[in-house]
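Incident log, structure service

09:12 report received: a user says their structure output differs between two submissions of the same chain.
09:20 pulled the input from the user's history:
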Amino acid sequence: MGLGAVIFDFNGVLVDDESLHFALFRDVLAQEGVRMTEHDYHERYLGYDDRRCFEEALRDAGQATPPGRLDELVERKAARYVAEAGRGLRFFPGAADALEQSAARWPVAICSGALRAEIRYGLQLLGRLDRVTAIISAEDAEKCKPDPQGYLMALDALRSHGHGTGSRAYPLAAVECLVIEDSLAGIISAKGAGMRAVGVTNTYTGPELLDAGADTVIDGLSAFTPEWISAQFGG
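09:34 re-ran on a clean worker, output below:
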């Protein structure tokens, strides 16, 4: 079966801001008396949305996680992110072209644990917001990656926009969706939703991504062209 849609993760795939997110988590948690190292973040929390990251870090430190406290921490970090992002975001080489070229062939969605405002802001800076059919953000999914809920919601959103219907005799199927992810949790999430997944080695190594279930890996978005996609997965 060929492809019917491409779904991008955001942080670590399009925008190069994982180091910024770590710094913000570290600083906000330090105000709560919790220490987070870069190793902790990479090995334990990367791939979670903001709420789940704070929840797990507080629990690991033996602290309570009432909903109101988690809401306040998410809001505090979001405000810091806006301030830092306003000074300029870094994008991975080929991010704008990968979105543009993919959208010229297939409907494109974003499925990310980032907040919707952060995703929209980044896409606007790239000049590619209008190329994205659907966005599934942290506010949309109750369960974060590695749970497949976000990617299943992206599938529903693509279907609701009419993609995979019309002249076709069947709706868009999960296996027709190609996901590109940088995190192990993201790969597990995509495969759990029944989708095909490409791991990009921006955060983890190729063998780690393959062990998590990636169908194949690439070393950068410059390789993620429609020609390569079609050769690997069908048009």
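09:41 both user submissions now match this output. Likely a transient worker issue. Closing.
09:42 reviewer note: The beta strands are 5-8, 108-111, 134-136, 177-181, 196-200, 216-218. DSSP finds ten helices and six strands in the chain.
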